[in-house]
Amino acid sequence: MIVHYDSPFTDDERRERLFRGEVFIYSPNRHTLALIEHARAMIEAAFGERDPELAQYDMEVADFAALLGKMKPAFIHHPRSKEILSALLHELGADTAKTYFDVPKMRSSTSDDYLTTGIAHAFPPHRDCWYAGPFSQINYWTPIYPLTPDNGMAFYPQYFDRAIENNSSVYNYYRWNKSRATAHLDLDGSSRIAPEATGSVADAVQVRYVVPPGGLIVFAGAQLHQSLPNGSGRTRFSIDFRTVHFDDVADGRGVPNVDTASEGTALRDFLCAEGYDRLPEEMIAPYDSGHIEDGVLVYEGSTEKA
Fold first, then answer.
1. Which of 43, 69, 127, 268 is surrounded by the most beta carbons within 10 Å?
2. What value does the mean pLDDT take over residues 106-133?
3. Partners of 24 in the beta sheet?
4. One-character DSSP codes across 157-219
5. What is the C-alpha separation between 37 and 34, in angstroms, rounded?
6. Do the Cβ atoms of 264 and 257 come closer than 8 Å?
């Protein structure tokens, strides 16, 4: 795997390299730090006098999940979150008139299996395209509080262009959207079956990047990656968001499909970094698949639910 640190490449060059499996790391900048400050303010207001990274030891699991179920959507749909994202993409050289982003997600990974499902799902090895993410999708990820080597993410670069057994055929994006409003109630993981690798990665080379709060890991959504089992003794909070470029969607550019069988597409979720318009429906239609009955094409969300 080729890794670029604070690379001067243009956005077009960066996307081309990301589609080849390369990874980009960026140091914190004024916009990523603003995003971190915004997220921390919301987290610390929600947890009150408790230390957010240690609150799991003072709270019942259901109460912790309920708190996340209100706080995370409030961050996702806060106007400030979108404003910072647009400025950040411009800072990184993206054409904001042609770059579309999905709203930034706040994630949490509790320690020692305290809560690993539903609103705090611990993602096993997966590709985002198994979740109906487009093959032109680029992911951006940053921790909110300092990482340790065992509470971040792991990558399996040898599987970037190599198939691995998985259960993505069970996943329909529109049915998943319908279940999102009650994710915080799924405390045992029984009501939402998520895509994951069913083939073993035990013998695969695992790569971990430990970046500071506001540092960015940028990678193609088709990279095989996972949330590490958290044994740090602290809850990890992070932010991720995804982008697609208008021209890539229009021209069918991206990463080849090596093993994805999910249904639907997440393209309708993406908003233009200038004006927040969605992609034209006629551009999305060629990427659509699967049944949409008894499902929701676009989950609008709520500040009350996850």
1. 127
2. 91
3. 4, 218
4. GGGTTS---B-GGG-BHHHHHHHGGGGGG-SSS-S-----B-S--TTS--B-----TT-EEEE
5. 5
6. no
151 by Cβ neighbours in 10 Å (0-12 / 13-18 / 19+) ranks as buried
Per-residue pLDDT band at 95 (split at 50, 70, 90)? very high
3 φ, ψ (degrees, to nearest 5): -120, 130
- The SS3 call for residue 18 is helix
What is the pTM (predicted TM-score) of this model?
0.92
Q: Which pair of structure tokens corresponds to residue 157?
A: 């670069």
Gap between the Cα atoms of 293 and 273, Å rounded: 31
Domain 3-287, CATH 1.10.10 — does that match?
A: no
**pLDDT over 70 (residue 302):** no
Residues 53-92 have pLDDT tens digits of 999 999 999 999 999 999 999 999 999 999 999 999 999 9
**Of 116-125, 147-156, 173-182, minimum mean pLDDT range:** 173-182
Q: Is 117 helix (H, G, I), strand (E, B) or coil?
A: coil
Once rounded to an integer, what is the mean pLDDT over residues 258-274?
Answer: 96
Nearest to 201, CA basis, from 160, 172, 257, 256: 160
| Torsion on CA atoms 122, 196, 125, 20, rounded to nearest 10 | -130
Given a contact cutoff of 8 angstroms between Cβ atoms, the answer to whether 201 and 126 are in contact is no
Map tokens 């539903």 to a residue: 118
- Does the pLDDT of residue 283 top 80, yes or no? yes
What whole-number distance in Å separates Cα of residue 67 and Cα of residue 65? 5
